Amino acid sequence: MTAAGEPRRDVSTDPVRRTLVRPYMLTRGRTSSSLGVFELHAPVLALISPDQLGRNATPEDRRIVELCQTPTSVAELSARLGAPVGVARVLVGDLVVARMVHVRQSEHQAEHRDVRLLERLLEGIRAL
Amino acid sequence: MPSDFVPPMTGTVLGPNGATSAATGLPVSMKIVVAGGYAVGKTTFVGTISEIEPLMTEADITVESLGIDYAGESSSKTGTTVAMDFGRLTLGADMVLYLFGTPGQDRFLFLWDELVRGAVGGIVLVDTRRIEDCFAAVDYFEHLGIPFVVAVNLFNGVYRHHPREVREALSVPANVPVVLCDARNRLHVKETLVLLVEGALRRAQMASAI
Of B43, B36, B193, which Cα lies nearest the Cα of B127? Predict the structure, then answer.
């Protein structure tokens, strides 16, 4: 039984662990984004390609833009960066401000209680 | 990076200048929370159906005094890190479902708000050898009025208590399904998710009919 099996970190792409940088060094000590709190499952999509990034882009920004060429959630970015969710939120917030990514926030829309979306969700799970 | 520039928060999509757009290429993202006691099979449940190997991440949380005494240590502001794991399911072209496993220890229960906010509902996994481990999760979902399903995990294909006995032990309302579920069995996991979403849908339909 692997009930207690530890999920794995994506070590190969884990700049935080690799460089032993304190996580909030990456955010210059900031623990929240000026854009508020992004939901864990909020998808993030890049508005630019990685080669459009400036030469002084940080490895983390580059990694986020690379991952977000397809929609990728805040939680997933956090796991892939090997950084706490709070760090991922601040970095994503900066990239939103810099017009490099955008984020879908569903909280205010109460999408989790929307009949039509729940019908689609049910259909989707049944079709698995 | 222009860190002093604060765009207005005007809509669901935060893009350049907080612009809102329907054609953003961003999928609808849904979330289901998988709860239960330590080592009850949450990661297994998530991993059985996830299209990616479950990932683990951490959230740093500052806990202000909650007026509730958890393990006698809530009187002051404390910082703590809570680990969660999750999997992903792509459902069609424009919908994604995330399954989030809760931290294993009940004393972190009040940290779930982050996980539970915006969730369609919850699955409470039960190991009948340690049935009391799931009480906290059941209380929590009931208290917040979040749809949930109790899933009795079958270890090695056997169960020691009938779902009816589990229902009695937990005294959950009749509208909360109690099912047997081998967390390693994809069909079981899928059917458990279907039950949960059916319940959430019924509730949403009733709410919108008022």
Answer: B36
Beta partners for A45?
A: A102
- Interface A–B counts its CB contacts (< 8 A) at 210
Contact B118, A112 (CB under 8 A): yes
Contact between residue A125 and residue B97 where contact means Cβ atoms under 8 Å apart = yes
> How far apart (Å, rounded) are the C-alpha atoms in residues B2 and A91?
12
Tokens coding A74 = 């805040």
Q: ipTM score here?
A: 0.82
Question: Which pair of tokens denotes residue A10?
Answer: 């994506």
Cβ pair B20, B159 in contact under 8 A = no
With CB atoms and an 8 Å threshold, state whether A107 touches B2. Answer: no
Q: Is B72 in a helix, a strand, or coil? A: coil
Query: Residue B62 forms beta bridges with which residues?
Result: B79
Question: Are A98 and B1 a contacting pair at CB < 8 A?
Answer: yes
What are the residues whose beta carbons fall under 8 Å from the beta carbon of A17, sequence distance 6 or more? A9, A11, A82
- Compute the Cα dihedral for A16, A95, A41, A127 and give only its sign: negative
Cα B203 from Cα A35, distance rounded (Å) = 32
The full set of domain ranges for chain B reads 27-209
B204 vs A108, A115, A120: nearest CB: A115
Size of chain A, expressed as the number of residues it contains: 128
Q: pLDDT digits over B122-142, tens only?
A: 999 999 888 888 888 899 899
Return the CATH architecture of domain B27-209. 3-Layer(aba) Sandwich (3.40)
Q: How far is A127 from chain B (nearest CA, A)?
A: 8
Digit-coded pLDDT (tens) for B171-193: 998 899 999 999 999 999 999 99
Q: Which of A24, A46, A40, A45 is nearest to A79 (CA)?
A: A40
